[in-house]
Structure formats: C-alpha cells, structure tokens
Specification:
The chain has 345 residues and is an all-alpha fold. The chain is built from 11 helices and no strands. The chain starts with a helix and ends with a helix. It comes from Urochloa decumbens.
Length: 345
C-alpha cells in the first residue's frame, strides 16, 4: 500500500494503468534485489589480551583476599559483589605502578584457579603429613606432595608461593573446610576420577556411570601413587645428591676458612713473640745504660770526695784531724796506684 501511494505521489510516473503497473514492478524488483543481498558481517573489535599473572601478583591477590576477608569491620554480612569490589580496589591500589591494573573478572577468575589448585595440593600435603615417612623433612614432604600432585593431576603444581601464604591462615582453613564438604567434594572427586579409566574416551560418557567404590578408589589411588613413586624416588635421589654436593662444598669452604684462621693466628703469635723479644732487648739495654750511668755518677762522686780530702792541708789541722786525714789520703794514694797497675798486676 505504501508503494502504491508513493507511485501516485511521484509526478514523474504515469498514472495510467500500464505506467502505474511498471512503477510498482520496478519498486518490487528493487526491494527484492536489496533483500537478496547478504548482510555485511560485523567485525569484532580487537581486544588487548592481558599478560598472565606473575608469582608476585599471585601473592598480592592472596594477601588482598586475606586482608579483606579478615577485616573485622566489614567481614560480617559482606556481600559477594562488595567483597570482590574491595579486593580488586586493594589489589590495584597496592600494585599501582608495579603491576598491570586488573579487572574484577580477571582477578576473580585467577582466584578460582588458585583456590582449586591450592586446595588439591593441600590434600596431597595432608596425606603426606598423615603418612609421615621416616627421615623426611618438611621440605622433602612438600616435594613428595608436589610429585603426587603431578602424577594424579597430569601437570605440575606451580602455586607453591600461594600455598605458603594461605596454608596456616584461619580464613583459608574455613574456606577449605567448606570446599571439602560432601556436596562440594563429590563433584571434584568425580572430576579427579574421570581420567583414571583408560577405556573411557570422554568425560561426558562417564557421567551416567556408577560412582567408583571404596576398593576401586583405593586401587586407582595406589596405581597413581605407584606411577609417581619412580618420579618421587628420582627427585629424592636428586635432592640427596644436591645435599651431598652442598655438604662437600661447605666442608671445603669450612676447611679453607679454618686454614686461613690458623695461618692468621700463627702470624699473630709470631708477631707477638718478636714484639716481646724486641721489648726485652730494649729493656735490657735500658737497664745496662742505667747501671752504667749510676756507676759513673758514683765514681764521679767518689772522685770529688777524694779530691776534697787530698786538698786538705794537714799542717793546719789539729793533731787528731791530721792523723785521720793522713790515713784517708794514704788510702786514696794506694787506690790510685792500684787503678794504675790494673787488674792483671
């Protein structure tokens, strides 16, 4: 009807029957050709893919989750949207200028991955702690748990840094206990057992099968542990070799340090001995000089006294004094004669 009215209003179209029919046919042909053309395919806008999370960003995310979750003011009754909004805000605030600014979707997706992987590893670590193999340290147990994780999950555990942050936190333990409840663990246990059957071509085909029994589960677990035992033994062997090499290097370094200390102590002792020897020699020389000086002073004093006695005029003395000084002068003459003769005469 609209095409008909447009044809009537168009002054260039003949209003006779044939003209009107031709106009309507031309309109229809043009509309059909336009409708037959395929619609243009819209091009998707190119998106800039963000880089993967680094270990430092994982640590920041775990710490942000713990801090917001442990906030005594906002923790009670905190809704999920508000909680994650605060986590994202803290993450981007602390990491500003150091890491990429992440969206809430990206951070929540990364946290779900961290939560699942760390929870699986925690189970392997708890099993290793319960078995408590003799002669294994905590570091050896974590290595063994990582080997069991790799054997069962078919990929390595790469979030050890996150596990160290979360493992002893009450907030994480509370979340882990919720994740380990039957309603949550049934689906995860089913997913863990999907690839244990080599005849099962796809996960979807096992959805309607009967769940594995206790004996079958134990058998599958033993098979997985036995497959990882060789890798575990190899890693333990490598660790022992590394420990022995480190011990040898440390022993060589310790011996070198001891030899250096002994050499230094010997040098110090020799230097102290030489110092004491020089000090004694100097002291002996000083004493000899002092003795010689005292002898010279005594000799000089004795000479002065002898000269004084010899200078006395015996004629002017009283008879008693004359006899006294005469004897002194005589002894002085004898001493002088003895000095002249010398010790050999």
């Amino acid at each position: 009807m609209d095409d008909y009215m447009n044809a009537l209003n168009n002054a260039s179209v003949d209003i006779s029957g044939e003209g009107l029919l031709d106009a309507l046919n031309g309109r229809a042909d043009s509309s059909m050709s336009a409708s037959a053309a395929p619609p243009p395919v819209p091009r998707k806008a190119a998106r800039n893919k963000q880089s993967n999370f680094s270990s430092y960003e994982d640590n920041l995310l775990c710490k942000s989750w713990l801090e917001i979750g442990n906030d005594a003011i906002t923790n009670t009754g905190q809704r999920k949207e508000a909680f994650w909004s605060r986590v994202v805000e803290r993450y981007n605030f602390v990491g500003e200028g150091k890491y990429l600014k992440r969206s809430q979707k990206s951070i929540m997706s990364r946290w779900e991955y961290i939560k699942a992987e760390v929870n699986k590893f925690s189970g392997h670590m708890a099993e290793m702690i319960r078995s408590n193999p003799s002669g294994m340290s905590d570091a050896d147990k974590s290595v063994a748990a990582a080997a069991n994780f790799a054997a069962i999950e078919k990929h390595n555990f790469t979030l050890m840094h996150c596990w160290r942050i979360l493992k002893d936190e009450p907030k994480w333990m509370e979340l882990k206990s919720k994740m380990d409840t039957p309603q949550n663990s049934s689906s995860s246990a089913h997913m863990l057992n999907l690839n244990l059957d080599p005849d099962d071509p796809s996960p979807a085909s096992s959805a309607g099968k009967r769940p594995m029994g206790r004996d079958a589960t134990k058998s599958a677990k033993k098979k997985a542990l036995s497959s990882g035992s060789s890798e575990y033994a190899s890693k333990i062997h490598d660790l022992n070799v590394q420990k022995i090499e480190l011990f040898k290097d440390a022993e060589v370094e310790r011996k070198a340090r001891l030899d250096e200390i002994v050499a230094l102590e010997k040098a110090k002792a020799e230097e102290a001995r030489e110092h004491r020897k020089r000090t004694l020699e100097l002291e002996e020389k000083r004493l000899a000089l002092d003795q010689k000086r005292l002898e010279m002073e005594a000799e000089k004093k004795e000479q002065e006294e002898d000269e004084h006695i010899l200078a006395i005029n015996l004629v002017e003395c009283q008879p008693i004094q004359r006899l006294y000084y005469q004897e002194l002068q005589q002894s002085i003459f004898e001493k002088m004669m003895a000095r002249r003769r010398g010790p050999s005469q």
